[in-house]
Design goal:
three-stranded antiparallel sheet, globular, about 450 residues, about 45% helix, five-stranded mixed sheet, alpha+beta
């Protein structure tokens, strides 16, 4: 065979080559990793300008292809041809620390696990979770009020960890919950570390140690929860069954618990931080949400489950916060066969990513994307006419986040306990910047002042 001859596929075409896709691999070894870590938005904009909506790069020690825009999101997330593995896409980041969570399962196995897990998110259990949130929230919000001025990001991070420990485990704050929170925080930090092996002294080593602690703790607890009716997600998963009586093994319960814990904590931490920042900057919207909550006519701050859908404007504002700073900036997959998108043939075994933050800030999709405008999500604001994959903070298709309604519920409970009593104030002329990776957060912690409302 001649040196330049090419083999052919069964269809008679030559195999797809990654190098046929426009793009660049950046520096030797590290590729474009440091450019992405420094400013992923600027990097993505530069690549899109130079190469278009489909481009090739190298980051985190592997070649990958980025697909941009709502059509790309739909193509990957709906995955009608079962072309993309979520498990193999996320594995480089999560497999060592959060293996076998729902995002790291594919196709029929994912569907089977999702059916069992759905029992923990039915109306009955959700009402129980909401009761626990309502009962625990006043003390936390009051503590913020006593501080007056403080950094909001670490405060909401601590609150979200406490709420996750309470609602997911049924465990009140104390020495034990502090150890659990520390373990989870170390695992989340390690998931996006540049060093991917647990060398002594690295954040990956701390993350691996945190996972071992969580496995040991949860395995000891499972026998205590079996056959009980506790109102926490852990107990629900231990006893969950689908319609055919299938249930999780102990190891599956542990893997799903750790993953759900991480996902719920990250979502509420970043999204409520963004919401509070924008409400501080837009007092008119703060007043609108406060009036909506007060006008529910509640006898106390406790938000009944049946009243959640009445907080329409609050939901619009929360969705806008999720648009501006989606908790998951990008979603990776790996091709299980060759695929074609917009004329580009992508080889089998290629990491393919869609950019959540890129789509959410695309001026061709959203007018004035840097502007906080919750009315985008109203019918008159274009919610029904906009591409259904223009807004994807919870993913889509088979892997649509199972806990999205829990996220809405938690955000609304926080606002229901906060806004009737306090005005959110920012320093005069203040503006912050949000770090996108490895986790979305304000670079300065977001200084706020809560002023009591008479």
């Amino acid at each position: 065979m001649a040196a330049n001859a090419q083999t052919t596929t069964e269809s008679g075409t030559t195999p797809a080559k990654l190098t046929d896709i426009p793009g660049n691999t950046g520096m030797p070894v590290f590729g474009n990793t440091f450019r992405i870590l420094k400013d992923p938005i600027a990097f993505g904009n530069e690549m899109r300008t130079e190469y278009g909506d489909v481009y090739r790069t190298n980051s985190f020690f592997r070649d990958n292809v980025t697909l941009l825009g709502p059509d790309a999101n739909e193509f990957v997330l709906m995955d009608k041809g079962k072309n993309f593995s979520s498990e193999m896409g996320w594995a480089p980041y999560l497999e060592r620390l959060f293996p076998r969570g729902l995002m790291l399962l594919d196709f029929d196995e994912h569907k089977a696990h999702r059916h069992i897990m759905a029992a923990a998110f039915k109306t009955g259990p959700m009402k129980g979770y909401m009761e626990r949130l309502n009962a625990a929230m006043p003390e936390r919000i009051a503590a913020w009020g006593k501080k007056g001025s403080f950094q909001f990001y670490p405060a909401i991070k601590e609150l979200s960890l406490d709420m996750a420990t309470l609602v997911f485990l049924g465990l009140e704050p104390g020495p034990e919950s502090l150890k659990i929170n520390e373990a989870l925080t170390d695992m989340v930090s390690a998931s996006m570390g540049v060093v991917r092996v647990p060398l002594p002294g690295t954040i990956m080593a701390r993350g691996v140690k945190g996972r071992k602690f969580m496995i040991d703790y949860l395995m000891r607890e499972i026998p205590k929860r079996r056959g009980t009716e506790g109102p926490d997600i852990f107990t629900q998963l231990v006893n969950a069954q689908d319609d055919d009586g299938n249930s999780f093994t102990d190891q599956e319960v542990v893997d799903h618990m750790i993953f759900l814990w991480m996902a719920a904590h990250d979502t509420i931490t970043s999204s409520v931080t963004t919401l509070v920042y924008e409400l501080g900057r837009h007092k008119d919207w703060q007043t609108t949400l406060r009036s909506e909550i007060v006008n529910l006519g509640l006898n106390s701050d406790s938000l009944p489950y049946e009243k959640m859908n009445d907080l329409v404007m609050t939901e619009y504002a929360f969705k806008e916060a999720l648009r501006m700073n989606p908790p998951v900036p990008a979603m990776p997959r790996k091709t299980v066969r060759e695929v074609e998108f917009k004329g580009h043939r992508i080889p089998k075994d290629t990491i393919v990513s869609i950019s959540t933050v890129g789509t959410h800030r695309d001026a061709e999709v959203w007018s004035e994307p840097e502007k906080f405008d919750p009315m985008r999500f109203s019918p008159e604001g274009g919610a029904k006419s906009r591409h259904r994959y223009a807004w994807i903070p919870f993913g889509g298709g088979a892997h649509m986040c199972l806990g999205l309604h829990f996220a809405y519920m938690q955000a609304k409970v926080i606002m229901a306990h906060l806004l009737p009593h306090y005005s959110i104030e920012l320093p005069e002329g203040y503006k912050t910047e949000f770090q996108i990776v490895p986790l979305i957060k304000p670079v300065d912690g977001l200084p706020v002042t809560l002023k009591a409302i008479d």
